[in-house]
Amino acid sequence: MDDEHDIDPWLFNISSDDSEEHERFLKFKGVFLPCMYLTVFVFGLVGNSLVLVIYIFYQKLRSLTDVFLVNLPVADLVFVCTLPFWAYAGTYEWVFGTVMCKTLHGMYTVNFYVSMLTLTCITVDRFIVVVQATKVFNQQAKWKIWGQITCLLTWVVSLLVSLPQIIYARVERLDIHVCQYHSEAISTVVLTTQMILGFLLPLLTMIVCYSSIIKTLLHARGFQKHKSLKIIFVVVAVFLLTQTPFNLAILIRSTSREYYNMISFQYAIIVTEAIAYLRACLNPVLYAFVGLKFRKNLWKLAKDIGCFPSLGVSSQWKSSEDSSKTCSASHNAETTSMFQL
């Protein structure tokens, strides 16, 4: 999604016979972008920070899943922390200098790719946990080490594929100062990499892995089966609804230069890009908060900071855990409950 910062020159230099329409677009952009960026920033900051706090102080990294669920909020946190700068630059102009331009481009791009690659790893992890539960149970320590190595590799790969944008990022004077990279060759490489690592790879992985998971769950016994299926459909639906529109928009725009100067298409780019960024807010809900163990620790945190001093939630969670253990009486039921992170 870093491609959005490459369109700033056209956002400020749209050739249109209808100057009033152009003015309306700039006013819309000046209000919509900072509102959406800052909304994603606030909710993404709170949600992902909660995940990190709970994993650091309440929940040890006992499994491969836990390793990935720490890597994801770290990437999303750094990602959302760049948004206030882009919000200001999109509303006014770039005032932060060349060093910050390269730095923020690097932070933005690297963490975008880390986040998407980690989502792919989580999908594969869930496939292994559900479809090959016995193998995972017998080799938990080994899988955890592989998870740590995989997380490190996601950062290395993300840094490598982001180098062109970091190297070529610079501040240019157009109608106003903008931070961008602008090169036909680089733009083609960036678009191809973004489409493959940021959309097609996670999507294909979800289709393949979740199809096998659904097949396994349909043959499983236990009351959590239908809940697990619902979570799968929600995860896939959210990914498609948030990521598909923007990726289609930039793909269509890349086919013809005339789209750069179409005000109606610029509306589409801005709106779909903002929708795509919502993943940073939704990731904590989809990949951490649905877990019984995580929610139990979230309640502990709330009690420790004095939010619910008089609520006896411990017995509620004990009852839930007992029910979960009952569900895990058979191998198939265990497989089903293990999907509940």
What does this structure look like?
The chain is mainly α. The protein has one domain (2-290): Up-down Bundle (Rhopdopsin 7-helix transmembrane proteins), CATH 1.20.1070.10. The protein is built from 14 helices and 2 strands. It has helices spanning 8-12, 19-57, 64-81, 83-91, 97-131, 133-138, 140-168, 184-218, 225-255, 263-277, 279-289, 292-304, 313-327, 331-338; strands at residues 170-173, 177-180. The chain has a two-stranded antiparallel sheet. β1 (170-173) and β2 form a beta hairpin. α2 (19-57) runs antiparallel to α3 (64-81) and α3 packs antiparallel against α11. The longest helix has 39 residues, at 19-57. The two termini are 28 Å apart. Residues 6-17 and 311-341 have low confidence and may be disordered. This is C-X-C chemokine receptor type 6. Belongs to the G-protein coupled receptor 1 family. The chain crosses the membrane at residues 31-57, 69-90, 110-133, 145-168, 188-210, 231-252, 264-290. Pfam families: 7tm_1. It is found in: Cell membrane.
